[in-house]
Design goal:
Helices cover about 20% and strands about 40% of the residues. With about 425 residues, the protein is an alpha/beta fold. The protein has 2 domains: about 270 residues, no CATH class; about 55 residues, no CATH class. It has a 10-stranded mixed beta sheet. β1 and β2 form a beta hairpin. α1 runs antiparallel to α2, α2 runs antiparallel to α6 and α4 packs across α5. It is globular, with a radius of gyration of 21 Å.
């Protein structure tokens, strides 16, 4: 049986073609040496050991080629705000206003950043938020990483316009993508990312996506994401925040993929007064299986971490929400709250909402709420009594149920796109 570590020559070749610094190749080699011995991360209530998350062909680690039609990538026109568009490992479009360049903002593909800002990337890449040896999936991510982006906002810089990234998976190889975001002291910005796949892809592919957000003292980050990877992808999503003193990271994530998904959304409130609001919505349909672990760990005193998860299940889909709030010893005055609710639209749907509170300190505030149920018949009756058909009434109820994340997305065009994606998922 071929082990992942047997792909060392392919990993070295890819690293060479990207002209990676020596430290990056050393990290890849170390991760590859460990990956076969490490365990998969534990996701409560879900058995996914047989999912093809590690079905990696080392021979496919090669540079992508651009399709004949750029429109497939998901953008039609260039806006005037910071923008990065990637197709697999290729950067298709990149722009950053001159005033932001002059202030030291960096927004580029990860491999260029490693060459041009090597020491800066090395300082933060998988050193604070996500560690390579956490488990088998983080190690595999580093070893077979083949695309990514780097965003750096210097101290005291305020970016008024939203920063937008579009990442398109090309369907020909595994999609191991890394986003590294560093918000220096007292910086402020809004970031929106979208993941998508080429339409019509049917080749089974493993996807492993890691996003690291490091927010230093007093930084303010609003992070939004719309995930809509294709049915052919079996995906591991790891989004992690490392939040320091008096910093804030607010997350708004729409998990709208068509394939099976394991998601791990974690936020570490490491500094006193750190704050994070995490809003996640998901839709499962067909035979799709999705499991989403959302965790906030309060290390700092007077830190605040709130989780809101809403999900909709149709057909024979499966959706599991695990919400974990952990207040560490010494985090006096911490606040950990969570709410997970699942709405089932069919008899074949399977849903679960599991709240977990781990409290190791006194003088704190914590609470949770969880529910799994069907559309409220009173709401349906009210809407239908006003002349709406059942399908229209149900769609309005669902849109309201998921509205907390829709309204948190910064761009009106992206909000409309999100609504269209929700409608498409419900009608599929």
């Amino acid at each position: 049986m071929t082990q992942l570590k047997d792909h060392l020559s392919a990993v070295k070749m890819f690293s060479a073609t990207q002209e990676e610094p020596a430290w990056m190749l050393a990290l890849r080699e170390a991760a590859l040496a460990q990956v076969d011995e490490l365990r998969l991360p534990r996701i409560d209530q879900v058995k996914y050991n047989d999912w093809p998350l590690l079905a990696i062909d080392g021979d496919t680690m090669e540079n992508d080629s651009l399709p004949d039609t750029v429109g497939v990538i998901g953008f039609d026109e260039m806006h005037d705000h910071p923008l990065l568009v990637q197709y697999g490992s290729l950067t298709v479009a990149q722009q950053l206003p001159q005033e932001l360049l002059d202030q030291g903002v960096i927004f580029t593909d990860l491999f260029s950043a490693m060459k041009e800002h090597s020491e800066l990337v090395q300082e933060y890449f998988m050193t604070k938020a996500v560690k390579p040896d956490e488990d088998k999936l983080t190690a595999a991510h580093l070893a077979f990483l083949n695309s990514g982006a780097f965003l750096y906002v210097p101290k005291n810089v305020v970016v008024e316009q939203p920063i937008e990234a579009l990442f398109n998976q090309n369907g020909n190889s595994h999609f191991f993508h890394h986003v590294l975001i560093v918000a220096e002291t007292n910086s402020q910005f809004t970031y929106l990312e979208r993941f998508s796949s080429d339409p019509g892809n049917d080749q089974p592919v493993a996807a492993n996506i890691v996003v690291e957000v490091i927010a230093k003292n007093g930084a303010q980050v609003k992070y939004s994401a719309i995930d809509r990877l294709g049915k052919n992808l079996t995906t591991y999503l790891n989004r992690r925040g490392h939040i320091m003193r008096d910093a804030m990271v607010d997350w708004a994530v729409g998990v709208m993929n068509a394939g099976d998904v394991i998601a791990d959304f974690d936020t570490d409130l490491v500094g006193d007064g750190a704050h994070s609001e995490i809003k996640v919505v998901a839709i499962s349909g067909g035979e799709q299986r999705q499991a989403i672990d959302t965790r906030v760990t309060n290390f700092g005193k007077n830190s605040i971490g709130h989780i809101l998860q809403h999900g909709v299940i149709r057909d024979h889909g499966t959706l599991v929400f695990n919400g974990i709030g952990h207040i560490i010893k010494g985090a006096k005055g911490a606040d950990a709250q969570q709410e997970s609710r699942v709405l089932m639209l069919s008899d074949g749907a399977r849903g679960d909402a599991n709240p977990i509170l781990l409290i190791d300190e006194n003088e704190v505030t914590a609470g949770h709420a969880a529910s799994v149920g069907r559309v409220d018949p009173d709401e349906m009756y009210y809407l239908m009594s006003r002349g709406l058909h059942k399908e229209e009434a149900e769609r309005l109820v669902i849109r309201g149920f998921l509205g907390s994340v829709i309204t948190a997305i910064p761009m009106k065009e992206a909000q409309k796109e999100f609504i269209d994606v929700i409608e498409g998922k419900l009608e599929a």
